[in-house]
Amino acid sequence: MISFNYETDFELLNEDELSQWISDTIINEGFKEGEINYIFCDDAYLLDLNIEFLEHDTLTDIISFDYTLGKLIGGDVYISVERVKENAKDFAVTFENELCRVMIHGILHYCGYKDKSESDEAEMRSKENYYISKLP
Binding site for Zn(2+): what residues are annotated? Predict the structure, then answer.
């Protein structure tokens, strides 16, 4: 089950379509959908989590807590709407495109994809692009 939660005044307009897109991605990757919570927040909210749980005193666009068990995908995905807006400007893409990239990025991590090395990052970006092309 995918749920969308809001700790800021932002709200998705197409929750059902995005939920189906995420579910399709999970199935396509050979996993099953468990409980996945997206929490949309601001920079300050995410910075507090970053400091408290990861001991990183930096702004970020996403923090995900992975509760995947075997092939059952689950977790909490925190996304800073402020950071996504800034990144969209920096990368010269729409806010919607960047938001979807970040949303699917968290799911791909749960599916086992990494992004620490150059080759892993290239594979992650390729997968992100593939799934973004499948958006309704």
Answer: 105, 109, 115
